[in-house]
Specification:
11 helices; three-stranded mixed sheet; globular; about 375 residues; Histone Acetyltransferase, domain 1; alpha+beta; about 30% helix; binds acetyl coenzyme *A
C-alpha cells in the first residue's frame, strides 16, 4: 500500500454493526436486562466478506449497519462515512461485497424497513415442527404462578436467569423448530440467517443448498404482547446437522453449525438448544450417534457440560461397572457395559471417552 494510505484503512469487525429490530410496541414492552436484545452487536469475524486482514479501504468514519427484523430476519443496510477517498485507487465496494452474502431483498430505506418490521412482528411464524420449549422469567417484573423458579444465580456477570413454567404470567417462552429444505418457506429463511455462521463461527461457511439431507433446529423467543392475544417471535440462534450413512443400516448425524446470537449468549440458551437436539436424536431409531464437526472450544465446553450433566442424571456413575478397573478380570464385562451405554446414548466414541474421564475425575473430587 502506498505510504500515507493507512489512515484510509478501517477494521471491518469494528465498522460493521448488527442489530435485531422489534416493532415499536414490542421494543417498548422490554425492560431491564431484556433490553439487551435490542442493542447493536459486532461480528466476531468478517474475513469471509472483507478478506483475511479484515480491513476496509478508502473511508474515514465508516459505519456499516446491518439490521434484521427480529423474527423474519428481513434486512436493512446502511453505509455511512465521514469521508471517501478520492484517488486512482478506488475505495472498496462495501455493498458489492456484502451483496454476495446476503439475500437480494434487503432494503436501504429506513422507512420501508420500519414497515417490514411492524408487519412481520405479527405476521412472522417459525417454520417447521416444534421440537422443544422452555420458559424464563422476563426481566420486566415478577412472574406470578405456581411454578417454583429454579436455576437462579449470577453467572459470568450476567443477570440471574429464572426458569419458570410456560403458562406463568410474565414468562418468556423459548421454542425450537425443526426444519428441512422441504419445510415451506424455510429455504428463503435460511438464506437470511446463514450470515450469522460467517460472522460468528471461525472457519464457518455456507452449506450447499443442493445437498438435500440438511436438517435444522431454530430457536426463537416468543413473547405475548401485554393486554392482547398477539404473540411475537424473535430469532435467537440455530444449529444444522447432516446425516451420513452408518454401517449397516443407520445414520450418523453430524452437527455442523451452531450459533446463538451475542445478545442471548451466556444465558443457557446454547445448552437448551444442544439438549433439545440431543433428546431429539435419542428418539430417532435410525440415528446411531451424534457427532460434531470441528467444534470450537466454547462449543466443546458446552457439549461437555451438558453430556456430563445428562450422564449423571441417568445414573451412569451409580452402575457397578463404572468403577471397574479396566485392568481387572472384570474388564470384558466393563467393555460390554461401555458399548451398551454408548449405543443407548448415541454418543460418539471420542466424546464418550472424554465424558467418562470427566466423570471419573468428578468421582475422585
Ligand atoms: N445464566 C448465566 N450464565 C449461564 C447460564 C445462565 N442461566 N447458563 C449457562 N451459563 C453460562 C455457562 O455456565 C457457560 O459458562 P462457561 O463459558 O464459563 O462455561 C456459558 O454461560 C455458556 O453456556 P450457554 O449459555 O449454554 O451457551 P451460549 O448460549 O452462550 O452458547 C456458543 C455458546 C454456542 C458457543 C455461543 O457462544 C456462540 O454461538 N458462539 C459463536 C459461534 C460459535 O462459536 N459456535 C460454535 C461453533 S462449533 C460448531 O458449530 C460445531
Amino acid at each position: 500500500m502506498a505510504e500515507g494510505m493507512e489512515e484510509w484503512l478501517c477494521d471491518s469487525n469494528e465498522a460493521v454493526s448488527l442489530q435485531m429490530v422489534r416493532s415499536e410496541e414490542d421494543s417498548a414492552a422490554l425492560a431491564g436486562d431484556d433490553l439487551i436484545a435490542l442493542a447493536p452487536f459486532s461480528p466476531a469475524f468478517t474475513y469471509p466478506i472483507f478478506g483475511e486482514h479484515e480491513k476496509i479501504f478508502g473511508y474515514k468514519g465508516l459505519e456499516v449497519q446491518l439490521q434484521f427484523a427480529s423474527g423474519s430476519l428481513k434486512q436493512y443496510l446502511s453505509i455511512n462515512q465521514d469521508e471517501v477517498l478520492q484517488s486512482a485507487t478506488p475505495a472498496d465496494d462495501i455493498e458489492g461485497k456484502l451483496y454476495e452474502f446476503i439475500p437480494k431483498d434487503y432494503t436501504k430505506s429506513e422507512e420501508s424497513f420500519q414497515e417490514v418490521v411492524e408487519r412481520d412482528a405479527v405476521a412472522f411464524r417459525p417454520m417447521g415442527d416444534k421440537v422443544g420449549s422452555y420458559a424464563r422469567a422476563a426481566a420486566a417484573g415478577k412472574v406470578k404462578g405456581k411454578g417454583k423458579a429454579k436455576g437462579k444465580g449470577k453467572a459470568n456477570g450476567k443477570a440471574a436467569v429464572e426458569e419458570v413454567k410456560e403458562d406463568d404470567e410474565g414468562a418468556v417462552v423459548f421454542e425450537m423448530y425443526k426444519a428441512t429444505w422441504a419445510t415451506p418457506g424455510f429455504r428463503e429463511y435460511h438464506r437470511r440467517m446463514q450470515l450469522f455462521i460467517l460472522l460468528f463461527i471461525e472457519g464457518g461457511s455456507y452449506v450447499h443448498e443442493d445437498e438435500d439431507a440438511w436438517e435444522f433446529i431454530t430457536l426463537f423467543e416468543k413473547r405475548k404482547r401485554p393486554e392482547s392475544d398477539v404473540y411475537t417471535y424473535h430469532f435467537v440462534g440455530y444449529t444444522s446437522v447432516y446425516p451420513f450413512w452408518c454401517y449397516p443400516d443407520q445414520v450418523r448425524l453430524r452437527l455442523s453449525q451452531f450459533v446463538i446470537l451475542p445478545p442471548y449468549q451466556q444465558q443457557g440458551h446454547g445448552s437448551k438448544l444442544y439438549s433439545a437436539l440431543y433428546q431429539h436424536v435419542l428418539t430417532r431409531p435410525e440415528v446411531a450417534e451424534l457427532t460434531v464437526e470441528d467444534p470450537a472450544e466454547a462449543f466443546e465446553d458446552l457439549r461437555d457440560r451438558n453430556d456430563l450433566r445428562y450422564f449423571v442424571q441417568q445414573g451412569v456413575t451409580e452402575d457397578p461397572n463404572f468403577l471397574v478397573d479396566v485392568g481387572s478380570d472384570k474388564r470384558a464385562g466393563r467393555a460390554l457395559w461401555e458399548m451398551g451405554i454408548r449405543k443407548k446414548y448415541k454418543i460418539a466414541q471420542r466424546q464418550f471417552d472424554r465424558v467418562l474421564e470427566m466423570l471419573l475425575l468428578r468421582q475422585l473430587n
